[in-house]
Amino acid sequence: MKRNLLILSLALTTLFVGACNKATETTKTDDSKTPATAVSADGSTDKKAEKTGEMTATDGKGAKIEFKETMFDFGKIKEGEKATHKFTFTNTGTTPLIVSKVNPSCGCTTPDWTKTPVQPGESGFVEVMFDSQGRPGMATKSVTVVANTDPTDNKLDFKVDVTPNPNAVKPAATPDLSNTKGPLKQ
Q1: Is the entire prediction scored with pTM above 0.90?
Q2: What value does the mean pLDDT take over residues 61-87?
């Protein structure tokens, strides 16, 4: 029993020491994990990782998304209309930019976007379509563009002033029964 406990203690100590001496990990562009070009436990830098072109989140390399505009005003539209706007962006980074998804803030907004990788220096788009049916009044909505950038989430906003449709069916008014005396008949 003591022997098994000693072996277990030695194994755990070896794992702990090995983990402490290992450099931090970063992701290469091919998604494999390798030692980073960071300072190791002994204070030296890893020259091998520097030569292979690995990237860290803070080295300034990678895809970078730059939108022409991040806010759009549709102005006034009539209730029931669908308004569409295309936000354009450029990849100002050094690697292909991939938009993985676009999340709207509500169900009234439908997004579309460039689904293929956008090469450095090239442009892409994120298009939003707002359905104003049943949504009279002023509104500010957004979509979150998720891409292989730092940060990964990029927010686009739009605002709209929806003029109510005078012919829209309105819900029946609830009668005011606050002054009624006695029991109510059903």
Answers
A1: no
A2: 96
Residues 6+ apart with CB under 8 A from 29: 53, 55, 95
CA distance 87 to 97: 16
What strands lie across the sheet with 65-67, from one edge to the other?
A: 65-67, 82-91, 123-131, 109-113
CA dihedral 9, 14, 16, 20 (to 10 degrees): 160
Strand partners, 71: 157
How many whole angstroms separate alpha carbon 128 and alpha carbon 126? Answer: 7
Question: 136: pLDDT confidence band, cut at 50, 70 and 90?
Answer: very high
Q: What is the DSSP string of 138-174?
A: EEEEEEEEEESSSSSEEEEEEEEEEEPPTTSPPPPPP
Backbone angles phi, psi at 134, to 5 degrees: 75, 20
Residues 80 and 118 in one domain: yes
Q: Which domain holds residue 13?
A: 2-51
Helix then strand then coil, in percent of the chain rounded to 5, is 15, 40, 45
Position 101 in a domain? yes
pLDDT of residue 147 exceeding 80, the answer is yes
